[in-house]
Amino acid sequence: MMFRALMTRRGRIGLLLAAVLIIGAIGIFGRLYGQHLAHEAMQERDSAIRKLELQSQQLEAKHLSGEAETSELRAEIARLQASLSALVPSRNAYGINPNQSIVVGDGHLTIGLVGVPLSSGINLNVNGKQHLVAVGDVIHVAVDASTACNVRVQSFDMFKAVFTASCNTAKSQ
Known about the structure:
49% of the residues lie in helices and 29% in strands. 10% of the residues are buried. It is rod-shaped and about 130 Å long. Strand 3 (109-114) and strand 4 (122-126) form a beta hairpin. The chain has 173 residues and is an alpha+beta fold. The strands form two sheets. The protein has a four-stranded antiparallel sheet with strand order 1-8-7-6, with no helix packed on it. A four-stranded antiparallel sheet has the order 2-3-4-5, with no helix packed on it. It folds into two domains: 2-84; 91-169. The chain is built from two helices and eight strands. The longest helix is centred in the N-terminal third of the chain and has 79 residues, at 9-87. It has helices spanning 2-7, 9-87; strands at residues 93-96, 100-104, 109-114, 122-126, 129-133, 138-144, 147-156, 161-169.
C-alpha cells in the first residue's frame, strides 16, 4: 500500500519534499554546529594568545632586569680592577689606546691595540700578528731562539687597555 502511494504523482512529490526537508534540516544543523565549533576554537586561540603575550611580557621584564644587573656587575668589576691596579702596580705595565702601538720588552715587541675594545676582549697586534684576548690571557711570543716574551692583558675598557710585557733571554753556556 505504501509502495502504491509512493508511485503516484502526489506520493513522489511528497517523498521528494520530505527528502528536501530532511537534507535542508541536516544542512542547517551542520552549519550551526560548525559555527559553534569554530567559535569555541577561536575562543581557545584568543586565550592562548593572551597567555603567550603575558609570558612574553614576563620574559622581557626578566631580560631587562638581567641586562641591568649585568651592567651593574660590569661597572663593579671595572671599579674593583681600578682599585686593584691602584693598590698593586704591576711591573712592566703599559697602557695603550685604540689604534695606537708602542715598543716594549727591551725593544723586542711592538704591540698595537687594533680598533676599540669589545665586550668579549681586545684585538692586540703583537709583532704583526693579531690576537683576540680577554683579561688574564697570556700571549707567548718567541722573538728568536734565545728570547721568549709574554704579554698578559690586565684590564681594558672602551678607551684603553692595560697589559704587562716581559722578555726573558736564555743565557748561552
